[in-house]
Amino acid sequence: MTRPLTEGEHTAVSVVTAAVGALGLIGFVISFATVAQAAEPAFGRLAFLLPLGVDLGIGVFAALDIVLARLDMRVRWLRLIPWTLTAATVYLNVATQADVFGMVAHAVLPLLWVVAVEVGAHVIRKRANLANPARMDRIRSSRWVLAPISTGLLWRRMVLWEIRSYGDALDRERERVLATIDLHDRYGRLWRFKASRRERALYRLGELTPAAGPAVVPVPPTGRRADVDDLMPLGWQILADHDAVGTPLTRDRLRDAVRETGQSISTDRAGALLARLRSETPPRRSARFKAHEVTS
């Protein structure tokens, strides 16, 4: 979506448009008179149609290029026609001049009309392209300079997966980084080999996000969300330590305590481990331990 113009910007645009239009009109009138006079011996009473057709053709084909671009049917070579007509109108204006002054004077004035048409076409083309839902945002040049490799990979993902919004691409990139950390915590440094094929596929597709992570964790036949049998002894010890100092055990505290021992555990597995600790009875549970309530 394009940003709406402020009142001051509307005024500035109106003034500039009027000035450009006035200059273009002057150039059109001078070009029309010069070319019509030069073409009279060849065209007679129809000589006025030559400059009219050439000058209007510049605007018509520029407008046609804009319309086709807006309809996603743009013909690339079509822009060559206004440029060719521009060269033709300049030539027709200077062909009858004998000195350099006359050539320059008759070349500059018609160029005012050509520039006015081209500027108007450029503005309309830009506004139409910004409103085009199929348009893909550009990545800031400063990001290319500061991080060329990661920016190139970001651009590649935008193109491959048709991510048209630069903001959406950055959001998905953040989620991808967090998903990478989750996979590393869950499977270790060799997560690319230890993770399930579904997780690896979702990661490559950019669909494995931190929010969606629990939905893709493999479910063992016992119905538990994650296998934490190997962490149960350590979990009971951590629970007992927290109980001894009167500190309630939460998922984050459990996760951090496990990591302090040098073992890897993700937030999801920490939640599953805490659920096991709450629902199961530890071996040789003491009376003091029975009175403890684990809070999440």
Concise synopsis of the structure shown:
This protein has about 300 residues and is mostly helical.
Task: Describe the fold and architecture.
With 296 residues, the protein is mainly α. It folds into three domains: 124 residues; 74 residues, no CATH class; 62 residues. 68% of the residues lie in helices and 0% in strands. It is built from 13 helices and no strands. α1 packs across α4, α2 runs antiparallel to α3 and α10 crosses α12. The longest helix is centred in the N-terminal third of the chain and has 37 residues. The two termini are 44 Å apart. The C terminus is likely disordered.
The percent range for strand residues is under 5%
Question: Over the alpha carbons, how many angstroms does the gyration radius reach?
Answer: 36 Å
Structural class comes to mainly alpha
The number of distinct structural domains comes to: 3
Annotation field: number of helices: 13
Q: Return the string of H and E elements.
A: HHHHHHHHHHHHH
According to DSSP, the number of beta strands is 0
Helical amount among residues, as a percent range?
55-70%
* Residue windows where pLDDT falls under 50 for at least 5 positions: 211-225, 285-296
Notable traits:
rod-shaped; disordered C terminus; mainly alpha
Set out the fold topology.
Elements: H1 7-43, H2 49-70, H3 80-94, H4 100-130, H5 141-146, H6 148-160, H7 166-187, H8 191-194, H9 197-205, H10 232-245, H11 251-260, H12 267-279, H13 287-290
